[in-house]
Design goal:
The chain is α+β, with helices and mostly antiparallel strands. It contains 5 helices and 6 strands. The protein folds into 2 domains: 2-102, Archaeosine Trna-guanine Transglycosylase, Chain: A, domain 4, CATH 2.30.130; 110-194, no CATH class.
């Protein structure tokens, strides 16, 4: 297991610089089998370096695609595969390990196409807004898989939302629930990137002096 400060979704890439000894030992262990894979969960609080952190129980299996080993660290490229739930954390020595169960794969229904289109439009529109404030957002024109299940998870992965919203998406039990969660979380996040116009002002936004009828400039 590799607890991280970010959420990994199925069908999304993961790039890591591994330098801590316990994770170098872990990589050496998993590379003995094929495919080489490990579990990723979000750290709820604490630090990923040195252990002692609290972890969310829902995560994703990462399959190793590429390794490079320049001096001082190992560069790793992996991809999210299937979702898992931690049943029990077993030990952290020599590296974090857990008993897990696989979560059921979400099933696509063509009747969900309008909802998927709405979710994608919302994500791409919000990415355009986010690009004006941060360099970390995905491009609004990023290509998605032609497979609808893969594309849905990729939408969750590129949506400019916080990690708690991402965990909510990852826990979805139906494809409809995932798409609705993508739309709802992204729509809420979009508010943070919008600059309100005059018509968007609320009475609570006005200073008390603005409401003074005796002030000729009010």
């Amino acid at each position: 297991m590799f607890p991280l400060g970010s959420v990994l979704f199925p069908y999304m890439p993961l790039q890591l610089r591994v330098f801590e000894e316990r994770y170098l030992i872990m990589l050496a262990s998993i590379l003995e089998s094929e495919p080489a894979e490990f579990g990723v969960v979000l750290i709820e609080r604490g630090q990923e370096v040195g252990g002692g952190e609290h972890r969310f129980s829902t995560g994703t299996v990462a399959q190793v695609l590429e390794l490079v080993a320049p001096e001082g660290f190992v560069g790793l490229v992996a991809q999210g595969d299937r979702r898992i739930e931690v049943v029990e954390w077993s030990q952290d020595t020599p590296f974090p390990q857990a008993v897990v169960r696989e979560l059921p794969a979400l099933v696509w229904d063509d009747a969900l196409t309008p909802l998927r289109v709405l979710a994608e439009q919302t994500v791409r529109r919000t990415l355009s807004l986010a690009s004006e404030f941060t360099d970390d957002a995905w491009s609004a024109n990023v290509a998605l898989s032609e497979d609808p299940v893969e594309a849905a998870w990729q939408l969750a992965g590129i949506a400019p939302v916080g990690p708690l919203d991402q965990v909510e998406m990852l826990r979805s039990t139906t494809m409809a629930g995932l798409l609705r969660s993508i739309f709802d979380c992204t729509e809420a996040a979009a508010d943070a990137f919008r600059v309100p116009g005059p018509g968007d002002l609320d009475a609570d936004d006005l200073d008390a002096d603005d409401l003074n009828p005796d002030d000729p400039d009010a």
